[in-house]
Amino acid sequence: MKRVLQTIVILGALAGIAGASVVGFGLYNVSARQGHWPGVKWVLHTTYKQSVRLRSPAASEIPDDLADPDRVALGALHFKGACSFCHAVPGQLQSATAQSLNPGPPHVVEAVSRWEPQHMFWIVREGVKMSGMPYWPARDRDDEVWSVVAYLEAVRDMTAEDQVALTGGEPGAASCSACHGEEGRSTNSYVPRLDILKPDYIGEALEHYRNGTRRSGIMQQVALGLDDETIDRVASKFGKDVAANRVNAARQDNETQGYILANQGTKDVPACSSCHGPNRTADAPIAPSLEGQSQGFLVTQLKLWRDGKRNDGKRAEQMLKAAQDLSDKEIKILAEWYAGQ
Q: Which of 52, 93, 257, 335 could form a disulfide linkage to 298, CB 3.0–4.6 angstroms apart?
């Protein structure tokens, strides 16, 4: 027994010396052109697959609206600008640079064939070490990650023509209008309308996205490339005089739950209109108009405020307090009411 233990110790020491020699003397060729030693690729890929399956959320956590065309469109537009350089899109070949990576990024059509939605969610959100696959820049924006997954799910049955219909045929990042609509009149429920916002508010939001104060994997990707002059130009192009667009709240049914929450509030929740509506005080800082805003966008933002995942703007403290007692039901009621104005 003693001899066996001595042999094991000696073999272990020799293995340690061999490993240290490979590292210390650079014996392992890290050239992407050469590939891995036999067996290394299998070990790494198997580790990757098992790690994803172990850590992915349960299938029950997949959003009910994953197939919503608006969610698919939003994910498609972001994927085109941020991900297609490596993974391409249906009907498009991968670039020569992408094909030269090791490990090589799979074409999007091949990639989606391997995984269920919950697995793709984990990969997009967390990224993969030593593969070139980054993690999602905004930690708390699972809603955005699910939009990308919604697109990836749709890719399974997507033709080249379907892709062009979603994002256009030109390569590169989408324009502001592609997501927010012509003149800022977005019809996508997950994207805010800009034509009912003041230029100053749009400019402030873009600055917050650019410096990371306001977290969004989608908007930070866009805003990081904007200088001050471009931000001013975009804000002036899409922003409008909100007062001219406001609906007279007195004409609305003042007995509905939405009206009461928005204009009267409750014991724990102040009236939204004190900052956001026609009744806002003259000295209130920049606050976005909510009448006619996209319903899905309002739901997302209210939940971010309530859950403490958003903390930007001049009235962040007041907004956090205002939203902290809102239930999911109340958020839905508010979003539906404002979207219907």
A: 335
